[in-house]
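Person: I keep going back and forth on a fold encoding question. Show me how you would write down a chain together with its backbone fold. Please set it down just below, with no commentary around it:
Helper:
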Amino acid sequence: MRKLGKFSIGIGDRFGHQGEAQLDALLKAKADGVDIVPVWNKSYREHKIINSQPKDTRSEADAAVKKLGYSGDYFVDADHVGMNTVDLFIDSSDFFTIDVVDFINKSADEQAIDLFLKQHQKYIGKLEIPNLSQIFEIRPSLLNQVAHQYLFAVEEAGRIYQHILSKKNEQDFVVEISMDETMEPQTPLELLFILSAIAQQGIPAQTIAPKFSGRFNKGVDYVGNLEKFTKEFEDDLAAIEYAINEFNLPSNLKLSVHSGSDKFAIYGPISNALKKFNTGLHLKTAGTTWLEEAIGLAEAGGDGLLIVKEIYRKAYHRFDELSQPYASVIDINLKKLPLPEQVDTWDGLQFVSCLRHDRTNELYNLHFRQLFHIGYKIAAEMGTRFLNALEKHREIIAKNVTENIYERHIKKVFL
């Protein structure tokens, strides 16, 4: 089995132009003594909106690695795939994020449920998990609830994994299981028995992305109870550590934090927990590279500033259309969005101040940032006009991309 390193980061890049700038941030981390494996990720949803192909992401990653002389391991992620989309990624990907959230709460057949319950009878009663002060009482009702809520989803993950395995050698790819884009978080005990089901399906998962408490909206900070998240995160780490030995899962199995970009409030607790448990993490940075491109264009002024103003104007008037695919991961108050006519009067500094995620800047507007985050479809519709602007202002954009990943993410989580 191909092994994912202890620390890894999913670096999404909507338009495939910032591979070198992204990788440069990881080279800076390496110079600081920390190896972080780059995983270029792009979902079917993003490919469809941009009108790109999975092979384009592979080309970007390979070109960046060659240009910068990078000698470490790296991956290309088929992000949030299901059975209907996975074949499009088979040839170009070596990391598969299997998303089964649509199958949660769909019941497996009674025979499978009965077997699951029988196999886990031995856990009924008191269960002590190392690194947790709490001793859990496992009740039949918990096992029954996990079986009815999650077993069918894990079975679907097994079917998708076996399909990938029929097309690729298991030595050639990494598997992640994603259950994050759902309404209710999984408790550490639920996660424990989900991992047991994953092991029974024969899936060598190296990362798992559960749903945590609180809001993980795209490109903006965490919203929720920080104390509750910290305990939940540490309990999940303990559950994973226990599950690895108990269920014979891969020794490097680790948590994956989806939409983890810009969740500055939880970076401290995450960093502390990684040190406490001496464990790894996969952090997905979602679409913030695209936002750094927009910031770079605004900073460049002239044609760059005109382009981002036009994107905002159209995004404002097409809010319903753009927000629909991201409804579960955005919270935008339309009343707090500036009018396009107002934005048209801004200079580059004012535009950047509103868009860049700097909560010390009184002009920062998280509603503006979220709308821009989902507005990349409009940039894609500009075609060569937008792409040419990325090339023309490559230097200033690259500086923003590298700085964002290194200063705001890597240093706060991994260093």
